[in-house]
Specification:
disordered N terminus; 52 strands; 13 helices; elongated; about 775 residues; Rossmann fold; Immunoglobulin-like; alpha+beta; nine-stranded mixed β-sheet
Length: about 775
C-alpha cells in the first residue's frame, strides 16, 4: 500500500512540473463587503459583464465605459446559473428560469422547469439557453424572446454534459445514471427533438464545441471511475478522434465540468473549482490555479453545476476560480492570469493587473489587499494608487493595450513598506478606541515609525479626508503634526496619517478621531471660482461654449445655494482675463480668507493638456497659452499644473472642496485623444486622492459645435446644470450633495452624448473627500 502511495505522489508531481501556476495573492475581509457574489457572466462580444449577489442585487458592467451601467434587484430565491445578452439576462434557479429586460429593470417572464436544473449551456450568438435537469429533461429557451423553443428528453438520472452547436440548430446531451453505467452522448435537433448522432458510451461531465463546430471536446471518467478522461470527438457525427489526457483522480477531482476551447486548448473549471488549461495536441496540462482540494464528488452528482468560462476577446477569458468576489482574467497568449476583477453589490469594483496596476472605486481599493506568504502583512490596493493607478485598466487588459510591465512581486514590495503607529494625541496614548476629546482648538499628534523609516519619502496628515499637512521623510522614526480642530462636519474630527515610500507604495493608514468640544463656528461661506475661456490668444484653440458654461454654473449655484451659506464670495474670470496671474491671485485670496468650515467650488471650462515626456503632468491652459502641444516650457510658464492645484488644495483652509473641469482637447490633437485622455484622467485621480478633494471632469473630450447650437452648452456642463437645478436630487430631500451630483453627471452625459454625437462620452468623478451639500431647494 505504501508503494502505491509513493507512485501516486510521483505521478502527480510529474504532472505539475509542466504547469504554470497563478501565484498572485489578493484578499478581502468578508465583513467589509456588502454581499457575496454568487454568479457572473459576460455577453458574447465580451463588452458587458453581469454580476449577481446573495442580497438579490444584479449589476451590469460596461467594459469600454469602465463602469457599472445598471444596478437593480431581482426576486430570485436561489441561483444555479446566469447568462447575458445585450438586452436580456436569464437567471436560472433550481426549478425555473427568470428572463429580465435588464435595461428596463423589468421581469419579462418566468419559465418553469420540469425538474431541478443540473447543467446549462448557452449560445450568446443565438441567445439560446439549454437547461439540463434531473430525469434527463433539457429545456431550450430563446432568452431574447423569453420563450421555450423545445423540451428534449434523454430519460436517465440527470443531465451531466450539455453543448449547443455554434450553428444554433442542435444540442449535445450527456446523462448519468445513479449507478455506474456508461451512456452515449446524443446530438438532438433543437427544432424537432430528433436524435441526429450519438457517441460511444462513457461517463461524461462536460462537452464543449470549438468555434466552428467541427470538434466536440468532452471530459469525464473512465469506466472504472479512477481516471479523468478528455476526448476529442467529431463535431458532426460524434465519432471518436483522439484522447487528450488521462489523470489519476485518487488525489484530486481534476475532472472538467465546464469550459471553452481556444487556440487548440481546453480551458475549464473542474468540479472542485480549479481553473485548468490543457493543450489539446500534447495532452499536457499547461496551467492551473491549483485551487483543487481533495474532493471526490458523489457519483450521482458528477457533472452537476454551473462551471463557466467567458471569452472577453480572442485571447482573454473571465472566470471565477475561488467562489468569492474576486474574478480572474486569463490570457491564452502568455498562459497566465493577467488581471483580477473584484466587485461588490454596491457600486464598488477594483481591477488589478498582474504587474500591480490598479483601477476602481476608492472604497473597493481600500477593501481589497495584497497578501504575503512570508508574513501577516496586508497591503491595501489603495496603498499602491500613486504608483500603479491606471484608468480604464480592464479594457486595456482585454484589448492588449496595457503597456507590459514587470510582474508585481508582492513579497518584495510588502517587505519595504513603512509601518507607522500613532504614539499620542496631545501627549496621551490614544488607546484601543483610537480617539480622544479636546476643548482646545489645536491638537498635536506624535507618530512612530516601526519599520523601514529609511524608505519614507513623506508623511501626510488628512483631516476629514482632506490633506492638511505634509512632512518630508528624513530617515527618522519620529514625526509630529499640529492640527486645528473644527466642527465643519460636526464635533468629530476624523484624521488619518499615511507615509509615502520610495517604492511608491504607501503605508497603511492610521485612522483616529478627535471629538472637538470647543466653540461652534459661524455658518460657512462658499468661495465660488468660475473660469471660462472661449477666446484664446491663438484663435485656432477658440471654443464655442466655455464662457456660456461658466456663466451658467455661476448663475445656477448662486441661485440655489444661498440658504446654505452665510455668504457667497464670487470670483468670475473669463476669456482674456483668464491668465495664470489672475487665476492664482483668486486662489491666493481664497487661501487668505477661507476658514475650515467653508466650502470651495472651482469650475473650469477650457483646454486641458498633458505635457510630453517621461515626467508628464496635467495643466489647465489659460487664455495666453498659444501652443498646447510640443512646447512644455510654455505650459510650465503660463499654464497651471496639477502640482500647483494640489498645493492650493492643501493650503486652502476650507475642508469641503470640489473641482469641476470641463477640459477638452484641441481639434488638432484628436488622433491622440484616447492616450492623452487616459493620462489626464490618471493625473486628476491621483490629484483627488492626494488632496482628499472631489473632482468631476470631462477631460479627454473634444468639442462639437452642434452641442452649443442644440443645448446652449457643452454636453458635460449641460448635464451639470440640470443636476444643480434639481434633477440630481435623487432622494428628493431638497438638498443636493456632491456625490448625488457626480452620480447624476456620470449617468446623464453618456445618454446626451449618444444622442447628440452618436457615441457615448463618459465623464470621470473621483470622490476621495467627505460628501457635503452644495445646493438646497425651496419647498
Amino acid at each position: 500500500m505504501r508503494a502505491v502511495g509513493i507512485i501516486v505522489i510521483l505521478l502527480f508531481s510529474t504532472q505539475l512540473i509542466a504547469q504554470e501556476v497563478d501565484l498572485v495573492r489578493l484578499g478581502y475581509a468578508s465583513s467589509a463587503i456588502s454581499a457575496k457574489q454568487i454568479g457572473m457572466t459576460a455577453s458574447a462580444d465580451g463588452n458587458l459583464i453581469a454580476f449577481v449577489y446573495n442580497d438579490k442585487t444584479i449589476k451590469i458592467f460596461d467594459v469600454n465605459a469602465n463602469r457599472f451601467i445598471k444596478r437593480f434587484s431581482g426576486p430570485y430565491t436561489t441561483l444555479f446559473d446566469v447568462q447575458l445578452t445585450p438586452s436580456r439576462i436569464a437567471l436560472v434557479a433550481a426549478n425555473e428560469v427568470q428572463v429580465w429586460d435588464w435595461r428596463e429593470e423589468r421581469l419579462v417572464k418566468t419559465l418553469p422547469l420540469t425538474h431541478q436544473a443540473t447543467k446549462t449551456a448557452f449560445s450568446g450568438k443565438h441567445a439560446l439557453l439549454a437547461v439540463g435537469q434531473k430525469e434527463g429533461n433539457v429545456s431550450i429557451i430563446n432568452v431574447d424572446k423569453a420563450e421555450q423553443v423545445n423540451e428534449i428528453t434523454y430519460p436517465i438520472h440527470h443531465v451531466s454534459a450539455l453543448a449547443i452547436h455554434p450553428n444554433g440548430k442542435s444540442v449535445v446531451v450527456g446523462v448519468m445514471t445513479f449507478l455506474k453505467s456508461l451512456n452515449p452522448l446524443k446530438q438532438f435537433d433543437i427544432a424537432t427533438g430528433k436524435v441526429l448522432a450519438f457517441s460511444s458510451a462513457g461517463i461524461y461531465s462536460m462537452a464543449v464545441y470549438n468555434d466552428t463546430g467541427t470538434e466536440l471536446v468532452t471530459s469525464g471518467m473512465n469506466g472504472l471511475g479512477l481516471k479523468t478522461v478528455i476526448n476529442v470527438l467529431d463535431g458532426n457525427d460524434l465519432s471518436f478522434r483522439n484522447q487528450v489526457e488521462m489523470d489519476l483522480i485518487i488525489m484530486n477531482a481534476l475532472i472538467p465540468y465546464g469550459g471553452v476551447t481556444m487556440d487548440n486548448k481546453l480551458l475549464s473549471i473542474t468540479g472542485s473549482q480549479s481553473f485548468n488549461v490543457n493543450d489539446l495536441q500534447s495532452g499536457n496540462r499547461v496551467f492551473t490555479t491549483m485551487s483543487d482540494k481533495v474532493k471526490l464528488p458523489a457519483y450521482g452528482q458528477l457533472g452537476v453545476g454551473s462551471f463557466n468560462v467567458y471569452p472577453l476577446s480572442k485571447t482573454k477569458l473571465l472566470f471565477n476560480g475561488s467562489k468569492n468576489n474576486i474574478n480572474q482574467i486569463y490570457d491564452v497568449k502568455t498562459n497566465s492570469i493577467v488581471g483580477y476583477f473584484f466587485s461588490d453589490s454596491n457600486d464598488d469594483f477594483a481591477i488589478v493587473s498582474r504587474d500591480g496596476r490598479v483601477d476602481g472605486t476608492p472604497e473597493a481599493l481600500a477593501k481589497v489587499y495584497w497578501t504575503s506568504r512570508n508574513s501577516n502583512k496586508k497591503t491595501s490596493l489603495e496603498s499602491t494608487f500613486e504608483k500603479g493607478f491606471a484608468p480604464k485598466l480592464l479594457s486595456s487588459i482585454v484589448a492588449d493595450k496595457a503597456v507590459p510591465q514587470q510582474e508585481f512581486k508582492v513579497e518584495q514590495a510588502v517587505a519595504k513598506v513603512p509601518v507607522i503607529t500613532l504614539q499620542s494625541i496631545n501627549g496621551k496614548a490614544p488607546g484601543s478606541s483610537m480617539s480622544a476629546q479636546s476643548q482646545l482648538k489645536t491638537a498635536k499628534f506624535d507618530v512612530t515609525v516601526k519599520e523601514n523609516p529609511q524608505e519614507i519619502t513623506e508623511v501626510k496628515l488628512f483631516q476629514n479626508a482632506k490633506l492638511v499637512k505634509t512632512i518630508p521623510g528624513n530617515g527618522s522614526n519620529k514625526y509630529a503634526f499640529d492640527a486645528t480642530l473644527n466642527a465643519s462636519l460636526g464635533e468629530d474630527n476624523f484624521f488619518y496619517i499615511t507615509a509615502g515610500s520610495k517604492s511608491g507604495i504607501e503605508s497603511e493608514k492610521i485612522k483616529f478621531t478627535v471629538l472637538y468640544k470647543g466653540a461652534t463656528e459661524d455658518k460657512p461661506k462658499l468661495y465660488l471660482l468660475t473660469i471660462g475661456v472661449n477666446a484664446y490668444k491663438n484663435n485656432k484653440y477658440n471654443l464655442n461654449y466655455a464662457q456660456a458654461d461658466a456663466d451658467g454654473v455661476e448663475k445656477a449655484v448662486r441661485q440655489n445655494s444661498g440658504s446654505l451659506f452665510k455668504e457667497i464670495i464670487n470670483y468670475n474670470i473669463r476669456n482674456d482675463k483668464a491668465v495664470k496671474a489672475n487665476i492664482l491671485a483668486a486662489l491666493d485670496d481664497i487661501k487668505k480668507k477661507s476658514l475650515q468650515q467653508d466650502v470651495l467650488l472651482v469650475y473650469y471650462a477650457g483646454h486641458g493638456v498633458m505635457t510630453e515626456g517621461a515626467s508628464s503632468e496635467f495643466y489647465i491652459a489659460p487664455h495666453d497659452v498659444t501652443q498646447l502641444y510640443g512646447k512644455d516650457d510654455m505650459l510650465k510658464d503660463k499654464g497651471i499644473s496639477a502640482t500647483s492645484l494640489k498645493q492650493y488644495a492643501q493650503e486652502i483652509n476650507a475642508q469641503k472642496q470640489v473641482f469641476i473641469l470641463d477640459a477638452c482637447q484641441s481639434a488638432g490633437a484628436l488622433e491622440t485623444v484616447a492616450v492623452r485622455g487616459a493620462a489626464e484622467e490618471k493625473a486628476i485621480a491621483q490629484l483627488a486622492r492626494s488632496t482628499g478633494t472631489f473632482w468631476i471632469t470631462a477631460t479627454g473630450s473634444n468639442q462639437f459645435a452642434t452641442e452649443f447650437e442644440k443645448l446652449g452648452h457643452g454636453i458635460f456642463t449641460y448635464a451639470l446644470l440640470e443636476g444643480i437645478n434639481g434633477a440630481a436630487d435623487a432622494n428628493a430631500d431638497k438638498k443636493l450633495t456632491v456625490r448625488e451630483l457626480s452620480t447624476f453627471i456620470e449617468n446623464k452625459v453618456p445618454e446626451l452624448s449618444e444622442k447628440y454625437k452618436g457615441s457615448a462620452q463618459f465623464p470621470s468623478a473621483y470622490s476621495f473627500g467627505n460628501d457635503f451639500p452644495i445646493v438646497t431647494y425651496k419647498e
